[in-house]
Amino acid sequence: MFRFHKTLDVLTLFHAPASTASKRILETLRSSPTAHKKSFELDVVEAPTVPTPTQLSSILDFIGKNRVAEVVPGARSEGDAVRMLSGGEAGRMVRPLLVDWNNGRAVVGGDEGAVLRLLETLPGN
């Protein structure tokens, strides 16, 4: 009899190594007791790498298109954000940005409580 194993949830942290908030969120993801109870794959993407247009669209679907300026300050639309990020303004993107691709959620900024809540609510294995 075959038994199918659940694949790990994939979390991506768009990380800025020079940012105190981003370093704190990365440490939380790596060391939190909650993180050790859940199985997930952590993908750390360091600045200046930005989400692809498709990834950005998904992130905005997760948090709400009306919150685009929280991810890319100064952007008024998804198109603005894509143009800014692909046009050499990668530094505009807010980091840390944690994305739970499997469950359609994202945490923008250094809200450690929101990150812990996301970890706590990851589906069990």
Write the CATH fold name.
Answer: Glutaredoxin
Strand content: 15-25%
Query: What are the segments in which pLDDT stays under 50 over at least 5 consecutive residues?
Result: none
Shape type: globular
Distance between the termini: 20 Å
Number of E strands: 4
Alpha-beta content class: alpha+beta
**Fraction of residues in H or I helices:** 40-55%
The helix count comes to: 6
CATH superfamily: Glutaredoxin
Biggest sheet, open or closed, and with what strands and sense? 4 strands, mixed
If you compute it from the alpha carbons, what radius of gyration comes out, rounded to the nearest whole angstrom?
15 Å
The mean pLDDT is 91
Widest β-sheet, arrangement of strands: 2-1-3-4
User: Total domains, how many?
Assistant: 1
Task: Label the CATH architecture.
Answer: 3-Layer(aba) Sandwich
Q: What is the C-level CATH assignment?
A: Alpha Beta
Order of helices and strands: EHHEHHHEEH
Protein name: Thioredoxin-like protein
Function: Putative mitochondrial redox protein which could be involved in the reduction of small toxic molecules.
Pfam families: DUF1687
Family: Belongs to the FMP46 family.
Helix and strand arrangement:
Blueprint lengths: L8 E7 L4 H12 L1 H5 L2 E7 L6 H11 L4 H4 L6 H9 L10 E4 L4 E4 L3 H9 L5
Parallel strand pairs: 1-2
Antiparallel strand pairs: 1-3, 3-4
Keywords: Mitochondrion, Oxidoreductase, Transit peptide
InterPro entries: Fmp46, Thioredoxin-like_sf
Subcellular location: Mitochondrion
